[in-house]
């Protein structure tokens, strides 16, 4: 990597941020295309001042992660309509001092799911009602899928189901629903609670495709059991990969080197 007087800066804001896999993934992509760009991580507390700093310094684009995805919105100059609907922004495009906000999480989730299911016209059961469920739910609807929601806390699940204008089920009742795919958007199954799952084998038997957004471990109990009963599966790294791919394409106007980004992401995960 060569840094000189014309190098354009990109980055990610979040807190904490030091474990982010995005710098390795984006820098590998910039290098593949021989672009004079570099991507770094910023641990940020004050979002408003950070964005003003980016404007002042001529930063080209920024990823936004937890806990700032909602907090950046009042400080933007423009917001993409889907990001507005979701109520969360994970990508900033900065042109001169004008900052536009986008959400590529739903694009990443859709692309990952499309590896195992044909989304338009399919019915997808989304487990969870947090920020990830919200982005994935609206994103699936953008693609023409029918969303059904299930969540542990009924009031929270019903509130999101109202926003999505979709059906809601308590987790205990999901066995009876006929679906084309199931997505876990909760942290259930993540290290260290690797024995946890919201959809036991009895639920998975009639489900053709299963995605987990958890990527630590790479194969969660949900995915292991889904494979065992014959479902097609995709793990959480693909959502991470494809949300980054969409960011890269937005920032550079070029087709992202997906294979390079995937290899980088996987090797980072291996070394953790
Ligand atoms: P994010 O914004 O990353 O999606 P979040 O807002 O903390 O995260 O949402 C977490 C989701 O995981 C919620 O749907 C939560 O269910 P509740 O609404 O009932 O809290 C779900 N979740 C987390 N731990 C869970 C558990 N042990 N069992 C069932 N659901 C769980």
Question: How are the SSEs ordered, and which strands pair?
Answer:
Blueprint: E1 8-14, H1 22-32, E2 37-43, H2 47-57, E3 61-64, E4 78-79, H3 81-86, E5 91-95, E6 98-102, H4 105-113, E7 123-127, H5 131-142, E8 146-151, H6 154-164, E9 167-170, E10 181-184, H7 201-204, E11 209-212, H8 221-228, E12 232-234, H9 237-252, H10 258-270
Parallel strand pairs: 1-2, 1-3, 4-6, 7-8, 7-10, 8-9, 10-11, 11-12
Antiparallel strand pairs: 3-5, 5-6
Helix pairs in contact: 1-10, 4-5, 4-9, 9-10
The structure holds 2'-monophosphoadenosine-5'-diphosphate.
Please report the number of helical segments. Answer: 10
Rg, nearest Å: 19 Å
CATH architecture of the largest domain: 3-Layer(aba) Sandwich
CATH superfamily of the largest domain: Leucine Dehydrogenase, chain A, domain 1
Summarize the helix and strand pattern as letters.
Answer: EHEHEEHEEHEHEHEEHEHEHH
Instruction: Identify the CATH class of the largest domain.
Output: Alpha Beta
Shape: globular
Classify the helix fraction into a percent range: 25-40%
What's the total count of β strands?
A: 12
Ligand inventory reads: 2'-monophosphoadenosine-5'-diphosphate
Largest pleated sheet: 6 strands, mixed
Looking at the structure, the CATH topology of the largest domain is: Rossmann fold
């Amino acid at each position: 990597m060569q840094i000189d007087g014309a190098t354009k800066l990109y980055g990610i804001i979040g807190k904490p941020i030091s474990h982010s896999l995005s710098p390795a993934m984006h820098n590998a992509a910039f290098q593949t295309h021989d672009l004079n760009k570099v991507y770094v991580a910023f641990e940020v507390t004050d979002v408003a001042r950070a964005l003003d700093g980016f404007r002042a310094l001529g930063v080209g684009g920024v990823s936004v992660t937890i806990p700032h995805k909602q907090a950046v919105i009042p400080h933007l100059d423009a917001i993409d309509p889907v990001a507005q609907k979701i109520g969360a922004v994970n990508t900033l495009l900065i042109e001169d001092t004008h900052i536009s906000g986008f959400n590529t999480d739903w694009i990443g989730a859709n692309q990952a799911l499309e590896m195992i299911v044909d989304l338009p016209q399919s019915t997808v059961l989304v487990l969870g009602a947090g920020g990830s469920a919200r982005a994935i739910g609206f994103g699936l609807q953008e693609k023409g899928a029918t969303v059904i929601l299930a969540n542990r806390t009924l009031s929270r699940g019903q509130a999101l189901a109202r926003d999505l204008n979709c059906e809601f089920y308590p987790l205990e009742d999901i066995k009876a629903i006929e679906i084309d795919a199931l997505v876990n958007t909760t942290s259930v199954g993540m290290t260290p609670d690797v024995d946890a799952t919201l959809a036991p084998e009895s639920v998975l038997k009639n489900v053709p495709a299963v995605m987990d957004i958890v990527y630590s471990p790479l194969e969660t109990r949900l995915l292991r059991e889904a494979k065992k009963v014959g479902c097609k599966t995709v793990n959480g790294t693909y959502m991470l990969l494809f949300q980054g791919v969409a960011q890269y394409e937005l920032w550079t106007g070029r087709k992202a080197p997906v294979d390079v980004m995937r290899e980088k992401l996987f090797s980072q995960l291996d070394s953790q």
